[in-house]
Amino acid sequence: MKLIIVESPTKSNTIQKFLDKNYKVLSSYGHVRDLPEKKLGIDIEHNFEPQYVILPKAKKRVIELKSEAKKSEEVILATDEDREGEAISWHLVQALNLETHNVKHETKNNASGFKLQVPRFKRIVFHEITKSAIENALKNPRDIDMKLVNAQQARRILDRLVGYKLSPFLWKKIARGLSAGRIQSVAVRLVAERERDVLDFKPKEYWTITAKLLKSDKEFGAQLIKIADQKIDKFFIADKNTADTIVSGLNGANYRVEKITKKEVSRQPLPPFTTSTMQQTAFNHFGFSAKQTMMLAQGLYETGLITYMRTDSVNLSKESIEKAILKIKNDFGAQYTLPSARVYKTKSKSAQEAHEAIRPTEPSQDPDSIENQLTPQQRKLYDLIWKRFIATQMANAILESTAIDITADKSEKNYTFHASGSVVKFDGFLKIYPQKTAEINLPILEEKEELKLKELKPEQHFTEPPARYNEASLIKALEEYGIGRPSTYAPIMSTIQTRRYVIKDEGKRLKPTDMGILVNDILVVHFPKIVDLEFTARMEENLDNIASDNKEWQQVIKEFWVPFKENLEKKTLELNKKEIAMEKTDLECPECGKYLVIRMGRYGKFYACTGFPECKYTAPLEPKEREPQEDLGLCSKCGTGKIVKRRTKKGRTFWGCSSWPKCDWASWENPRKNEE
């Protein structure tokens, strides 16, 4: 009997179906070893040697796997093909003592009577969980790739050093329970700096003038772009007076088609999904968080429906392309196929080109054909992946673009308006994967043709502040800066929100909390390298270099650790908690009469008495600039305080008495809700 070990029970069940009774497939349920939870677990003095332990939750499973391994003639490690998967396999070798049996384990005598010494374990990898992929992997085992293991170890140790050394610093200087992470801190910085851009933004007024024109009874719009030889840029019409003057100058003008330009535009489909583009698209289409998308994709992968979902490559196998072309020809006709396969090239320098993009394992399985195998949310994601992949091998869409210049003549000067439109002449890949190609149909016009004016419409506009990040746009920004990798995007999004450094507003946009802003400011000023975009990107490159055997992992950590440690020791002595996390006020404590200060706690700012610990009075802090409070009347309990809208430490809305803590009336429901 041969034992195959994978990470998850779903994956083990899928693989078992493809193999005969000579194989037994079991799951490790993820990592079985890691750094200890309650101490650093790194011997800094001895070349950063990690001190791994069996995870408490994995102890029972390790005993079971050891027992099965002893009974098996061979152990085959079939964890995922990325760094994390390689590390899980390596940890299994250590935890199950497979390495010690590597030479001692012997096969039966061969024909010549000699005993053959064979490895006790093998390592196999595959990009998809299909029968052919598993069989091919079993025929081509390899050793554990220690370059990938060391890259994973380096990332884990770096993150542990930052987290376990910088977090206690934040506890001492701000509040207990805080944490700092190497990548999460950069993500928080991006969100905080964008928030400052939003708050500091000053809108600028500008106007546009649109002519509503008629050809027969068909109406269309054209925008003013030129007065005489003066082009109208965005801020040319800066106020209402200027707009009204131009409109007055157009009174009695004759409108005539001056020039018609038509051209054919060919549009190509987008590349197949990588991890980041899948997360971005799933958010934009369905509002899925990055974590939710990866959980759904993991399920699709482990049941054999899609290829591996952590990838930054846009490569596609020759076999998958051939199957896609056959599916396109059968379902849509030969006119939708290509004369030769369309090949995409990744823009990412760090992409693992040996990997594939995310695609369906069997292109013939369209979403409708396997609907009964999927949950509604899995169905949505699979539909997206399948259509995106099939579209990559479909013919280009052909659009006809029309641009029309219209002259409005007056005796003293002439004005030029512009209208544009487009129609789809051949839908091509748009048949299956629609994009923003909204058709704008213009009436059939001829040059020199006179047009009738229906309305001249001046419109006021204001420039918009930069949009706050949402999960999709933040992942895109991190990827563009070269920060993070396919396996880290979802954990980053989850961590910064779990730690309450970032919250989502009603539109699922990311906003920094007071705590997020304070922690970010401290790191930017006092630990600039931790949150420096270029430095963090270079560190990612160093981890990639470890994986490609161009750098020693201990050296990479040492180059980071030595200056980091020196700066941490210096700042620990220099910075004072009162200066960082406290603000003086003129308010008196209602219990002891001493002055109140504004302190920063784990969940944000609050009032606290300077008489602490003798006086433990605290009170929530209302924002200085808050929305006007709705008049909800007097408190029904005390009759003197007003009912006000507030938030808990965790951001949940409630209604309470303004006389708190003297009056403790509170409600999760708006007291006026029933009246409405």
Describe the model.
With 676 residues, the chain is α+β, with helices and mostly antiparallel strands. The chain has 6 domains: 2-144, Rossmann fold; 175-200 and 467-574, Topoisomerase I, domain 2 (Orthogonal Bundle); 205-262 and 402-420 and 447-462, Topoisomerase I, domain 3, CATH 2.70.20; 275-392, Topoisomerase I, domain 4; 577-617, no CATH class; 622-676. The protein has 17 helices and 24 strands. The strands form 7 sheets. It has a 6-stranded antiparallel barrel. Strands 2-1-7-8 form a 4-stranded parallel sheet. A 4-stranded antiparallel sheet has the order 18-19-20-21. A hairpin with a 2-residue loop joins strand 19 and strand 20 (604-609). Helix 3 packs across helix 5 (146-173), helix 9 (290-302) packs across helix 11 (376-392) and helix 9 (290-302) crosses helix 13. The longest helix has 28 residues, at 146-173. The protein is globular and about 95 Å long. The N and C termini lie far apart (71 Å). 34% of the residues are buried. The model is unreliable at 101-119 and 623-628 (pLDDT under 50).
Gyration radius over CA = 32 Å
Basic shape: globular
Major sheet: arrangement of strands = 9-10-14-13-12-15
Q: Spans of 5+ residues with little confidence (pLDDT < 50)? A: 101-119, 623-628
In the CATH hierarchy, what is the architecture of the largest domain at level 2? 3-Layer(aba) Sandwich
Total number of beta strands: 24
At the first level of CATH, the class of the largest domain is Alpha Beta
Oligomeric assembly: single chain
Distance between the termini: 71 Å
Largest sheet descriptor: 6 strands, antiparallel, barrel
Helix content: 25-40%
Number of domains: 6
Mean pLDDT: 89
